[in-house]
Amino acid sequence: MNALPVATVRDYLTGLQARIVQALEAAEGGPFRADEWARPEGGGGLSRLLEGGQLFERAGVLFSHVKGTKLPPSASAHRPELAGRAWEAMGVSMVLHPRNPYVPTTHMNVRMFVAAARPGHDEADIFWFGGGIDLTPYYPFEEDARHFHTVCRDALASHGPDYYPRYKRWCDEYFYLKHRNETRGIGGVFFDDLNAPGFDASFALTRSVGDAFLHSYLPIVERRRGMAYTERERDFQAYRRGRYVEFNLVFDRGTLFGLQSGGRTESILLSMPPMAQWRYDWHPEPGSPEAELAPYLTPRDWV
Known about the structure:
alpha+beta
């Protein structure tokens, strides 16, 4: 594993976490809690979190660098030739659940994975990068969606013209609730298994995604945080948060990997909203503000 510049990636990720937390603390007007932890099998991390804030009802910005002796099934299912290898994974993952229903929930993740060469075998360490940003509004605004996707497109433009449309489509397909026949939100960009361009180019693209987060999200927060809302909007927000829970527990590969690899449960499930609800066969009243969300939960071109 020492052949790869793991320390350089780690330095970037810890710096990214610090920058994001500093910006979110300024927006919130209060500090995030710091919770440093160690993993018995190897590695650890730093969880930065806020609960019960005026802006963010729950926010988690997590750094982890963990190691193991055998790849878990979720990591080796598509790479059977790597089964049995030691591994290490590091990344920054975050989910923000705002209090105001007019401010969308957002998720961002950037990560690197290394499967180590086995002693006595003529093979090399295998690396891949992954990550993405996506937006989950409850009451959608066209200008917010276009802004978010414009930032995502521009972040990838210098790496090649095909990356944004390909990763945008990947995001639409990944964050899809098959049992509901709807996307989780309005998408963004998502990628995984990135190593074909080489280490330096793959790392540079991953940095572009991580660095784009604050530009993509904070302007939307500032536009919407002052909008007045009532218990009606909060009720709908809780209902839609239920769909967020469904995706994370049923489909999300990161959640599965964390649980299968013996990860820290408190950190893995910090992505869950603080409150959510489910109703039997409920549908919004036609023509209501709540009904306006449905057309946004299908892929479309935003920019």
